């Protein structure tokens, strides 16, 4: 292949490679580093026998992501406060009209599922991502990971059960999610504590991620009283040149708060039975590049 052709082929598949790496790692910067490493491998290795570039590139990216995941897991142990995946702006509702496909994509990139996936082993996570999010067959995954198909089926089953048992149940109807998100934001920003509390489930949780670099709780808050009081206090916080907008983040509507045109925080909610079950607040400035306005 000529160098120009190599570039064209790689760029054709860059989106899926980045998507695989992000779901594996939960951080945009790490995903981009892995994809860059995959590019270097792609240009340096002999490709004369590569019949299917997409599978070949996914294999390289997945293996690199597994290695990177093993390296960065130690970061979370020394992280200040709760650790959440890095939020990213998505456009699933507009680019994927099929409702079933939209639901699958939204689940695979949702914050709730990415949080649960943190407790999977690197191999389980790779199998789950390739199987559930991208529809690779067990045999294809076995070739990517250099494992037997039987072993991959076992990993896939274990990972699926783990995620199903631990992920919170939430409504995926985009209209209802947006409507309740808007009511939640209006109640909080308008100082209507009674209305705010009415939107929260009795056992609601709040998870804040600041990395110690912004105001956010250093422990998970539990219960409508604790969560409501914190949200009410946050709503009164003065943010310079603040601007709020609802945008799609990780497959669902969320509030993006800008300060002077730059991301200050992302507030994302999980909803079930018409109530907010979990509130995620991302305020670590190092993890907000993926939602920066264009």
Description of the molecule:
This protein is an alpha+beta fold and 294 residues long. Helices cover 54% and strands 16% of the residues. It is built from twelve helices and six strands. The chain has helices at residues 3-25, 28-44, 53-77, 92-95, 99-109, 111-117, 122-133, 138-145, 149-166, 174-189, 193-199, 224-235; strands at 200-209, 221-222, 242-249, 252-259, 262-272, 275-282. It has a six-stranded mixed beta sheet with strand order 2-1-6-5-4-3. Helix 1 packs parallel to helix 3 (53-77). The radius of gyration is 20 Å and the shape is globular.
List strands and helices in order, with pairings.
Blueprint: H1 3-25, H2 28-44, H3 53-77, H4 92-95, H5 99-109, H6 111-117, H7 122-133, H8 138-145, H9 149-166, H10 174-189, H11 193-199, E1 200-209, E2 221-222, H12 224-235, E3 242-249, E4 252-259, E5 262-272, E6 275-282
Parallel strand pairs: 1-6
Antiparallel strand pairs: 1-2, 3-4, 4-5, 5-6
Index terms:
294 residues, alpha+beta, 12 helices, 6 strands, 16% strand
Which outline best applies? globular
Tally of helical segments: 12
Biggest sheet: strand arrangement: 2-1-6-5-4-3
- Report the span from N to C terminus: 35 Å
Helix content: 40-55%
Q: How would you state the average pLDDT, rounded?
A: 87
Look at the helices and sheets and give the structural class: alpha+beta
Low-confidence stretches: none
| Percent of residues in β-strands | 15-25%
How is the biggest beta sheet arranged?
Answer: 6 strands, mixed
Q: C-alpha Rg, in Å?
A: 20 Å
Q: Give a count of the beta strands, DSSP E runs of length 2 or more.
A: 6
The ordered H/E elements are HHHHHHHHHHHEEHEEEE
């Amino acid at each position: 292949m000529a160098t120009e052709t190599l570039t064209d082929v790689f760029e054709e598949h860059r989106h899926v490679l980045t998507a695989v790496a992000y779901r594996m790692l939960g951080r945009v910067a790490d995903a981009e580093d892995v994809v860059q490493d995959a590019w270097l491998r792609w240009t340096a290795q002999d490709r004369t026998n590569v019949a299917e570039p997409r599978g070949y590139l996914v294999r390289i990216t997945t293996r690199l992501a597994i290695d990177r995941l093993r390296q960065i897991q130690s970061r979370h142990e020394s992280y200040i406060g709760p650790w959440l995946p890095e939020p990213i702006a998505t456009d699933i509702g507009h680019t994927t009209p099929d409702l079933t496909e939209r639901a699958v994509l939204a689940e695979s990139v949702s914050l709730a599922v990415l949080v649960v996936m943190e407790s999977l082993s690197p191999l389980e996570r790779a199998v789950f991502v390739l199987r559930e999010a991208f529809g690779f067959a067990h045999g294809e995954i076995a070739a990517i990971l250099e494992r037997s198909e039987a072993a991959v089926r076992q990993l896939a089953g274990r990972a699926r059960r783990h995620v199903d048992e631990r992920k919170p149940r939430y409504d995926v109807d985009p209209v209802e999610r947006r409507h309740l998100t808007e009511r939640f934001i209006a109640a909080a920003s308008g100082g209507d504590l009674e209305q705010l509390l009415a939107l929260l489930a009795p056992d609601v949780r709040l998870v804040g991620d600041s990395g110690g670099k912004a105001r956010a709780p250093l422990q998970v808050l539990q219960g409508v009283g604790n969560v409501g009081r914190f949200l009410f206090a946050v709503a009164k916080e003065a943010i310079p040149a603040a601007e709020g907008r609802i945008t799609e983040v990780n497959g669902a509507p969320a509030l993006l708060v800008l300060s002077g045109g730059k991301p200050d925080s992302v507030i994302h909610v999980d909803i079930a039975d018409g109530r907010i079950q979990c509130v995620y607040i991302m305020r670590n400035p190092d993890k907000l590049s993926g939602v920066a306005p264009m």
